[in-house]
């Protein structure tokens, strides 16, 4: 797909910078977003070692897997087996994706404490990813969120296609804010704003975040989730940090992609993020050496090199 035919990237002027946060929570999505699109089966033992090594490297939030319909994402069909074998490290959270009541039942059977629902800002992607219409998705999520909150779970709400959609082109800020607002009103405690196909640029990121703030939603409730298709993930993250966002999603070694958005490539690499945060003096709690060794090991398991610049630079 050539995003320029869709009017992307959208040109939005960058705003005045504000102070950067002192510390950032890295929401590591490698085990879930990173592996969900792998063609070859990844053995559950490899996934477990991946999770253990990421925890040992100091990551405190590890998005472990998804309790989606196994036919839709076969790579994560082993979710229950994975969580049964997981040695949970105290202080580390292991959120999972849950789309519906059946997913929540399965997650609860696996003693999950943190879940994430995943909405889309566009009609087409909602249909492709959830087999539901844009409005219909809320009817699916609402009982899940209500029950999860009632049972004391934390609930994150993803919003996909926040910037551009491969079928619909540029996505208006108001459309994204409206979807995000509904998820927060439902009871989600945090939103993760996804650039699913990696077409955003820093000015567009600022405009979206300002749109949320103007709607009364503080940046403390927002996380950002960038894919690196056009090489903008790190600059986009910097734009979000400038506006006070302090939760950033990334994937060890830059693994990733969405099986229902073919133009989605890997996520922002956690190593690249850590390198930048180190340079800015922002705390994150991660041991970069251990993380790079983990991604180099994972690249061997998958039989291809990591796309992360920092992994390449530090493991050669
Ligand atoms: C939402 C559904 C389930 C609808 O899928 P559906 O086919 O419409 O399912 P249904 O509701 O019609 O149910 C049909 C059958 O599936 C079963 N079923 C139904 N749900 C489940 C479940 N949870 N676990 C196990 N089984 C399930 C259900 O019990 C029933 O079984 P039957 O009664 O016929 O025997 C499907 O579309 C789905 O699983 N979609 C997930 C797609 C996905 O995981 N995409 C990737 C994640 S999103 C992403 O990566 C983006 C993100 C988050 O990273 C941010 C960004 O980058 O933007």
TrEMBL record:
CDD domains, alphabetized: DRE_TIM_HMGL
Keyword Magnesium carried by entry: no
Keyword annotations: ATP-binding, Lyase, Metal-binding, Nucleotide-binding
InterPro entries: Aldolase_TIM, HMGL, PYR_CT
Pfam families to which the protein is assigned, alphabetical: HMGL-like
Keyword Disulfide bond: no
Pyruvate carboxyltransferase domain span: 24-292
Molecular functions (GO terms): ATP binding; lyase activity
Family recorded in the similarity comment: Belongs to the HMG-CoA lyase family.
Protein name, per record: Hydroxymethylglutaryl-CoA lyase
Source organism (scientific name): Saccharopolyspora oryzae
Lineage: Bacteria, Bacillati, Actinomycetota, Actinomycetes, Pseudonocardiales
